[in-house]
Amino acid sequence: xxxxxKQNCLRLVRTINNFIDTNKISEGYLxxxxxxxxxxxxxxxxxxxTDKYVKKINNSLIFDSSHEEIYIPIDKNxxxxxxxxxxxxxxxxxxxxxxIEVNINLQEDYVFIIVTNxxxxxxxxxxxxxFDEFTKINKDLNRxxxxxxxxxxxxxxxxxxxxxxxxxxxxxxxENKFIIKIPLEDTLNYDRGENSxxxxxxxxxxxxxxxxxx
Length: 214
Fold this sequence. Notes:
Layout (H helix, E strand, L loop, with lengths): L1 H26 L7 E4 H11 L1 H4 L5 E6 L5 E4 L1 H18 L5 E9 L2 E9 L5 H4 L23 H10 L4 E6 L4 E9 L14 H11 L6
Parallel strand pairs: 2-4
Antiparallel strand pairs: 1-3, 4-5, 5-7, 6-7
């Protein structure tokens, strides 16, 4: 009972945070607090922290980067939130005994972050709306993974606040890819950010994955 109470409280925190940030976006108040971080380290830490939930659907979690260090100005909290949303969606909609991959590539003046999972095919008509507000891919009444339908909308907006973009690709074989593109930016006008706190990150992971009952 204590576990269920805690999980439902975390779900409320997540829902309230999403609604607050959605209102901030609509009013133009949500702004990134950019500092210089090693983007590879930030994303790797998030990926590792979600492994306990990935294992619940018997998936293997693979992280790979073309570079060990990519220092760019980012809002760390926003980047963590984007990755947590994409990884939680990979668990929510992913098939058992498959894999989830996170890849980082540096190409010319852009960083590409690619999250790949194996999940139920998203129909062509649904693809048009997956980044819209209140869009839910799974509309079944007996679904065991809940959500407000704001996660991908917020992720898209947070990426755009970094002057980046996100797009979705899917194959008939059930391989889904979310491709994030963030431009490199001069670091001269930004302060150095602090190292990630693993304890705080784990708390963020539990909040983001709180609407998954496995």
